[in-house]
Amino acid sequence: MHVLVLGAGLSGVTTAWYLAHAGFDVSVVDRRDAAGLETSYANGGQISVSHPEPWANPSAPWTALRWLGRDDAPLRLKLRADPAQWRWLLGFLGECLPHRTRRNTEAIAALAVRSAAALRALREETGIAYDHLERGILHLFFEPQAYRRACEKLPLLTAHGITARACGPAECVEVEPALAAVRERLAGALYAPDDESGDAFRFTQALAERAKAKGVTFHFNTSISRFVHHGGLVTGIEVADEVGRIGLLKADAYVLCLGSYGTQLAARLGERLPIYPVKGYSVTVPVRDAAAAPSVSITDESRRIVCSRLGGRLRVAGTAELDGFDTTPHPHRCQPLLDWLEARFPGAAETGEAQFWAGLRPATPSNVPLIGKSRMVNLWYNTGHGTLGWTLACGSASALADLMSGRPPPVHEFPFLRGALGH
Ligand SMILES: Cc1cc2nc3c(=O)[nH]c(=O)nc-3n(C[C@H](O)[C@H](O)[C@H](O)COP(=O)(O)OP(=O)(O)OC[C@H]3O[C@@H](n4cnc5c(N)ncnc54)[C@H](O)[C@@H]3O)c2cc1C
């Protein structure tokens, strides 16, 4: 069976890989001239199994109110006359109810655990290099109350098979000596030793090369403009090449992995995907002093900022803006990330050589991705991974390949695989 994967980001390339592995004949279409050039390009680098709780949780509305109007606030909301934005926000508020948060956390945790195992197996099988480190993630807290609340959630992580432990300030510095400069200010941390970090873009490119070697065809510089369909069946996709020549690509089945851009195409089929772009920023800087730069990946929970060591570079990422499809990396939004780095790890990096970047997280209100079949007979989804697209990539793609091969993963482990699509 010939499957056309739409999009060559983390979701599309991993989908192509696992489908090819399962014996499908696979092609991939993307408007860019290589894989991984949009949201998967410069993310925070974390494989964060230890953070399954979605942004939509009971404390989120109050936290958002507290941040309102602050220039360095991790969250920024620019209200627009855009029904999709309002629908998404209402959906987000609904997902903040305690029972919804519990259900979403369980779904994400199950998928994240599967995903981490799949990533390890893929690494062993392919030997691909992407500046990955297996040194864990330290979730830092600078307020005692927030630290206490986080410690109360440890049993929940353990129940999902996720290893994490509470560390006082001294143990934090033992785990990551580069934290010595902020030791006095730390309330404590949760340390997840099995978590990893790595460069998602290098990974996506390397896996695309392996997929090509396995027989997957890539159509780059090819923009998808619409689905052609008849009687509930997708019969092709209309595409344009770089000089605007229109063509039609056909397959037996299609998988939509278009990040934040899938919603408009799906809407023309009558499918309303609950995905809205949530803009985030990152800065990438060369390491100046290796001893002062962390190699354990860091999440500063007080500022919602993450930091990962990627070979000779440090990547700092964060912020969430709801402001449509603008991807400009505004310097005034990137600067707080650099200031954070200098404050937490003084002298670690060549901040004068920082590269600024912004990308659009394809976010569902619940942060639970859409994995499964659409209402069309031969159209599938693997999209909407929001804040965790790198963490969940391999698990989602392998689960989709199982579904398409008629081997659905156990429903009690992955109830959302059917439920999230609303049918
Ligand atoms: C600042 C930031 C930090 C992050 N940090 C982390 C992290 O630490 N850990 C983590 O797990 N996740 C993180 N994420 C999330 C993660 O990066 C995303 O969830 C993931 O990259 C989404 O991958 P994707 O394949 O769905 O989308 P994309 O990478 O955007 O891929 C979609 C592809 O579709 C193509 N496309 C779109 N429209 C068309 C069209 N009409 N025709 C043809 N091609 C088209 C695009 O060119 C693109 O290649 C972060 C995100 C951001 C923004």
What would you say this structure looks like, in words?
By secondary structure, this protein is an alpha/beta fold. The protein folds into 2 domains: 2-40 and 202-274 and 368-419, FAD/NAD(P)-binding domain (3-Layer(bba) Sandwich); 49-96 and 131-198 and 276-363, D-Amino Acid Oxidase, subunit A, domain 2 (D-Amino Acid Oxidase, Chain A, domain 2, 2-Layer Sandwich). It is 32% helix and 25% strand. The protein is built from 12 helices and 20 strands. It has helices at 10-21, 60-67, 83-95, 98-126, 144-152, 154-159, 169-175, 200-213, 262-267, 331-344, 393-404, 416-419; strands at 2-6, 25-29, 46-47, 75-77, 137-141, 165-167, 188-192, 196-197, 217-219, 223-230, 233-240, 246-249, 253-256, 276-286, 297-300, 305-310, 313-322, 355-363, 370-373, 379-383. Strands 4, 5, 6, 7, 14, 15, 16, 17 and 18 form a 9-stranded mixed β-sheet that branches. A 6-stranded mixed β-sheet has the order 9-2-1-13-20-19. Strands 10-11-12 form a 3-stranded antiparallel β-sheet, with no helix packed on it. Strand 11 (233-240) and strand 12 form a beta hairpin. Helix 4 (98-126) crosses helix 11 (393-404). The protein is globular. Flavin-adenine dinucleotide (FAD) binds at residues 7-12, 29-32, 37-40, 43-46, 48, 223-224, 257-259, 261, 280-282, 306, 317, 359, 361-362, 383, 385-391.
Based on the structure given, which CATH architecture of the largest domain is correct?
Answer: 2-Layer Sandwich
Number of helical regions: 12
What is the straight-line distance between the termini? 25 Å
What is the domain total for the residues?
A: 2
